[in-house]
Write a structure and sequence with these properties.
The protein is α/β, with parallel strands linked by helices and 142 residues long. The protein is globular. The longest helix has 15 residues, at 14-28. 37% of the residues lie in helices and 24% in strands. The chain is built from five helices and five strands, in the order βαβαβαβαβα. A five-stranded parallel β-sheet has the order 2-1-3-4-5, sandwiched between helices.
């Protein structure tokens, strides 16, 4: 059984909705899913999982959330992640979603293997929710 962690930060609820759909998809493929807000997450939630999904909205200066998510992610800069498979998901409103490309590059620089990304503008629509569910299944079957 695949061990998966979903670690996210959500303000308006859009990222949380995506996290829940990813979890549903992964559990439908018999993954053991550990889902946490980033404020509750530990480094071991990442290092002890087979695959991880990180979620954040775009915040100030077109970056991931900067008070909790960014410091958590930055902890991996000096840790050996050995190509840990990850997916990134999030939402944006006022910008063009460039934060996701920047985040993806940062994760690759830190040694993660970024399998997929999912980014939505504002509230996810039905197709985007289906995409999140499918992402969960994909991660569970890697």
């Amino acid at each position: 059984m695949k061990k998966m962690s979903i670690i996210y930060w959500s303000n308006g609820g859009n990222v949380e909705v995506l996290a829940n759909k990813i979890k549903e998809g992964a559990e439908s493929s018999n993954a053991n899913v550990n889902m946490k807000l980033v404020s509750e997450a530990k480094i071991q939630d990442v290092t002890e999982s087979d695959v991880v999904a990180f979620g954040s909205p775009s915040m100030d200066n077109n970056r991931i959330e900067q008070l909790e998510m960014e410091p958590f992610i930055n902890e991996f800069k000096m840790l050996p992640v050995n190509g840990k498979k990850v997916a990134l998901f999030g939402s944006y409103g006022w910008d063009n979603g460039q934060f996701m490309e920047d985040w993806k590059e940062k994760m690759k620089d830190y040694g993660f293997d970024v399998i997929d990304t999912l980014v939505v503008r504002e509230t996810p629509n039905e197709q985007q929710l289906n995409n999140a569910y499918d992402l969960g299944k994909k991660l569970a079957n890697l």
